[in-house]
Fold these 2 entries.
Entry 1:
Amino acid sequence: MDMQKIGAFLAELRKEKKLTQDELGEQIGVTNKTVSRWENGNYLPPAEVLLILSKFYKISINELLSGERLNEEHYKENAEEYIVVDLMKKRKEAKKRLVISFVVAFITILAGLSIVLLSSLLVAPIWLRILYIVFSIVVIILGIGVCCVLTVDAGVYECPVCGEKFVPSMKNFISGAHSFTKRKLKCPKCGKKSFCKKKLS
Ligand SMILES: [Zn+2]
């Protein structure tokens, strides 16, 4: 994305409407300084502002981000570029989910173990201790479940036999033995079961 070009285009659109930076800022609820930063290409307006501007100027977001009015052919080209940007965003999102799931897994195991430890230290009737242990096992299973949901479609797995990249089904995913970066999965293309490496895209 060419920030300078987008900024210049934003300024051009504003001038077409015969508005000052002040007046535009007032209309969309930001300061004239903010408008100036966008137009200088220092900042890209946030997504919600892009939406407002696109309605305000009756222009597509695609065109706003391209920094020009587009004809149909160009429009397609640029749309493809934004699909790529979108993919990059998804990749980032997947990374974030992986980190969260590791944190959840860590806390879950810590919580489960501390409950077990607590129950062994407590002078409590045997049924209460058993209840504690059952509870802690449920906590651990729930935590692992949350992690599975978070990570199953965060990124893809690559089959080492045929190189196919795929998202495993939840059942396949949960039942597969795994290490930190690999998981034993059945490849949907060649049907071989092997340790597939996790890839982010
Ligand atoms: Zn395969």
Entry 2:
Amino acid sequence: MSKGKVRLSLDFECGWGVAQGGAWRANQAAGIYRNLRPALRRFTSRLDELEISATWAVVAGMVTPPESRDITHLRGQFANDMATFLAEADRETVDGRDLLEMVISMRCKQSFGTHTFSHLLFSDPEQGPEVVLQDLMRASEVSKSLGLDFSRIVFPRNHAGHFSTLQAVGITHARMPAINGHNPIARPGRIRRMLGAAIRPPSQVCEIKDTSGVILHHATEFLNWGAKAGNFKRMLHWRRVKQALAAAATGQDVHFWMHPFNLAEGTGLDHAVDKLLLEIGALRDAGKIDVMGF
Ligand SMILES: [Zn+2]
């Protein structure tokens, strides 16, 4: 039997991921971005203690100094939402330089990728190929200036596309949703998503080379059960996570992801993830799995 793999990746974005549409206001008012600091400190300490390395897909705008948060390339409603976000959100909602510092200064070296400069959606018809290219070039500059790897991308909200543009800016690997999962752009209803979580088998990593040359890394399991999940949904969701971990222990390749701020939403996910990390560490120490990023 071949050794299984557990991969971990994080969408590292503070309020940038919900700047579009303005949901950052409610999160900020609930103290999520303030609580993110101690939550990330606990999470990174546990990763350090267990010597687990993950891939952090960074929104470049979050880790660049305020004077270089240039969003003049953006168009339409998204440009308006971003201008409001940058003008009105608190510093800790926008600026994640302290968060990145926490990750960079870990004893157990982490790997990095990009989550674009502005968290623009590649499916947004108002942002054409030129805007996507500009956004990626800005992100690439920020990564370079900080010495962070830029060869891997996590698409904002998993809306994949523009593969030849990715290839042109030096990206070799793109994290994709599970092949057997729901289409992230279609947004199925709540019941269908819950049913999917209950009956869909945990997905295995599958890498496919796109015609552009970019490797599409499919199959990712979202750790977060959602800010409003009741006990039943949590139970179903976590059963899936446990099934995926059990699959890894029998030789499969599985990939878990979440946003660091999910640990600060007060849903109990932080404790569940902490226990999961301990289980992952124990399986690794028993020689059953290797643990890595993507
Ligand atoms: Zn995101």
